[in-house]
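Obj: model holo form, ligand = phosphoenolpyruvate.
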Amino acid sequence: MKKLVAGNWKMHGLSADLGEIKAIADASRGYSGVDVALCVPAILIERASRAVPDFAIGGQDVHFAEKGAHTGCISAKMLLDAGATLTIVGHSERRDAQRESDADVKAKAEAALSCGLAVILCVGESLEVRESGEAVATVGTQLEESLPHGEAAAGGVPERLAVAYEPIWAIGTGKIPTMDEIAEMHDALRQRLVTAYGPAGQQVRILYGGSVKGSNAGEIFAVPNVDGALVGGASLTAADFLPIVAAAAEVEGSGKAA
Ligand code: PEP
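Output (holo structure tokens):
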């Protein structure tokens, strides 16, 4: 399966950073065996997509309603209108700070898919859950309850849905699970996807996220059922991000175009 390497810029990015986006997009063109995307702050989407029209620019969240009295929120249609082709939903920082439930995340994923956006749906456990030995069961249930269903999902799974496994304790900390722990979790998530979608569940990409860097990406991408990465801190500069894209290309055996 073609790997997807997506950057999550979180609350980083001003006009002055458009050059960095352009540098990432330009260099990514050389790795045709890897899908590359950057999810930038909503207010930067239009400028970024104009600067790099052939490159995937995404949002970091979306409201589940089409429109209405939701001050400060952004609909899927607005993201598309601004030039986004994908969005993250259910990032742990939003599940925590904005108290988003699995039901909210499911509704957001359904709204985004119905509108034609691709979706990166995040799940992941806290350190407490990891230490209790319940990580696989907890994240499996979280995925099951967050997955899009119905008409919205029918047209968009598997092509436009990706799941990102992001252990909360690994985000921005420099710590990562062991490769065996990643393999165990991704295998369990794959089984949940097949239960939910049948054979189409085999084609949904499962990304790993949490302290991915150029120095550990190759080892992570070689783990079975790791179909790419969601990258925070190391996606902010071309110098940090491109080695991760290169590692994905190398594992895929696609290398860099001459
Ligand atoms: C993220 O927040 O999605 C993330 C993976 O962050 P980092 O790569 O900085 O750990």
